[in-house]
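Risk register update: the risk of archive-format incompatibility is retired. Evidence:
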Amino acid sequence: MTAAKYRQEDVVGEILGIGMTHYPGLTRSDDTTRQWYKRVLNAPKMVAKWKDPANFPAEMKAEIGNDDGLTAIIAYRARMVENFRKIRKALDDFAPDFVLIVADDQYENFQEDIIPTFCVYGLDDEFQQNIWQYGFDGKKTKLENYWNDPEDYVFKLRGHREAAKFLTSGFIRRGVPMPYAYKLLHHPILAHSFNYTALYLDWDRKGFPYPVIPFHVNCYGSSVIKAKGLISHLYEDAIDDGLLPDPPGPTPALCMDVGATMAQILSDSPYRVAIIGSSSWSHSFLAPGMEYAIPDHAMDRKLFAALKAGDYETWRRYPLEQMERSGQHEMLNWCVLAGAMAELGRKPIIQDWIETHIFLSNKCFALFPPG
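Archived output:
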């Protein structure tokens, strides 16, 4: 089977860019999701002032309202679902040969034995995801879900190993030593960032017909092992073993360079490809600059203004240290997307921008259509 399975050899690849979120809160019930911020604020290591609602910002109090956030989460979910449906329509109209999901593994498949900075997954032509049977830690459990699916519900996805080989080979030939994998490692299913991205684009359960190539970015960097991708840093004392911290994640500039190379490879390919940068923006529980309590709205707005203007240089120069201070770790996924779109000379069509104080992270939805 050749790389031109879907297209004639003389057709230049076309690319659709998509920016969205894989926010896990939407997989749970309204009652569960509206309580998550309390788990963060009531953590043993949280600064004492955030345990007193009298100290909450006015916007936060308004979201909580007089029903403990129930009205807010119902409206919030409806707004998010509307965005997912719009993106799915754009995806269906484009009809890609495969979808390249740029997202992150949070100590799910990549653990102490290997933490790649980037990795291309070339999975089987069809693989089954028992998404409600496994927690983030890979242990078998029974997860509540918004759709009331049975525990044994199977979310069916397809991979595209040939295209993954084409992409990985293109990176290596252009001087980027790109790791790749054909099997999952520690977790029986894909990391939630990839699964939930596809799941949300199939919110109405029409099926997700497009082959998926997961593209991993080590967004959590030196914290991925220490925090195990969650919020243990707010529950446990930090252990100083006297050793250097684990190596960092990639810088925004490096992610953008990789994204630019990705765009070059796919532009020279026989494929129609949708590149999806999937993450929320600043996460409250990852932001020491915000005392781990609320998202860093100011720094998110700075990057959002630059994105709207097509000012990718601001993103390129953005320090990794500031990104981590603001809890914007996962935006490195968007940096890969931004690098690809900068290489293609694309400016975004902003579909929506959503700020919050109690749903843990801000959200952006954007399209970068071809032509």
